[in-house]
Amino acid sequence: MTEPVLVAENLTQEYVLKGGLFGKDRIVRALTGATFTLEPGKTLAIVGESGCGKSTLARVITMIEEPVAGTFVLDGTKAGPDTRDKLRTTVQIVFQDPYGSLNPRQRCGQILEEPLKINRPDMRAEERTRRAREMLELVGLRPEHFDRYPHMFSGGQRQRIAVGRALMLEPKVLVLDEPVSALDLSIQSQILNLLVDLQERLGLAYLFISHDLSVVKHVADDVIVMYLGRPVEIGTKEELFAHQRHPYTKALLSATPMADPTLRKERIKLTGELPSPVNIPPGCAFSPRCWKAQDKCRKERPELGPEPHPAACFFPE
Ligand SMILES: Nc1ncnc2c1ncn2[C@@H]1O[C@H](COP(=O)(O)OP(=O)(O)O)[C@@H](O)[C@H]1O
Ligand SMILES: [Mg+2]
Fold it and tell me: Whole-prediction pTM value?
């Protein structure tokens, strides 16, 4: 078996919402007990509705934030304040918004060179430029794009620049936080194909975050479904799309338009609002919206079941 490049154990993140003069502080439980491994060359997808903690996980793994509990090991080194500098180049991130994430005053070439300027101060300018030009080609842009400013590019091209910038330091893990969600459908598949191609060439591991199961179906090897900050179902893509064990996964998939007719399912309509992570329901957090919920579900919290294909449900399918 290949050594995993990322091992996460019980990652947990909370935020405090200040109550003001008379109010009590409230705790946002954004992420709880995320445990997973990721191997080189593989894609682990994290899916779930908006607010379920996906970007929080991305910020923790890319060391933008420190978790309140849990640990993770990147390429054999345990992440923490004393290893942050060493690991800075091991993991990189691409954000959703190709418009907000590039400095409008920098030319494309400068944007690509910037990570080298900061992290490899000894590198000669010519070498930096050579690498940036090579990257431009690798992400499918043309040599004449080197001197252009971000506003002169389309959304898809900007996302190519963002991917190129993330790869300049030769990371082993790329965190992609909704990398195609802001793009037109026709452009989405171009960027997904680019990502698949880069992964094959460079042996990259992807933590691929998306709320869209049809996108996940295109790229994932393994999938973690999250609900209110917790993983509720984990499986290979094949297992998960063929057979959903957690009712929430079933509902999520039934709401996703799928091109493949064998995957078209009867639509399950979830009743009730998505609860707030400030006030997570007792027992199974999904129980207030679940059509299978029994008394036990409202009192006890189900743990993720055994491998392979664990699901946190007392009455899995
Ligand atoms: N800095 C913060 N302070 C307070 N709450 C936050 C902060 N960041 C995220 N949250 C809350 O944590 C929850 C998870 O957010 P997020 O990870 O962005 O979800 P997702 O990316 O799945 O949409 C949400 O309820 C969000 O409002
Ligand atoms: Mg997000």
Answer: 0.95
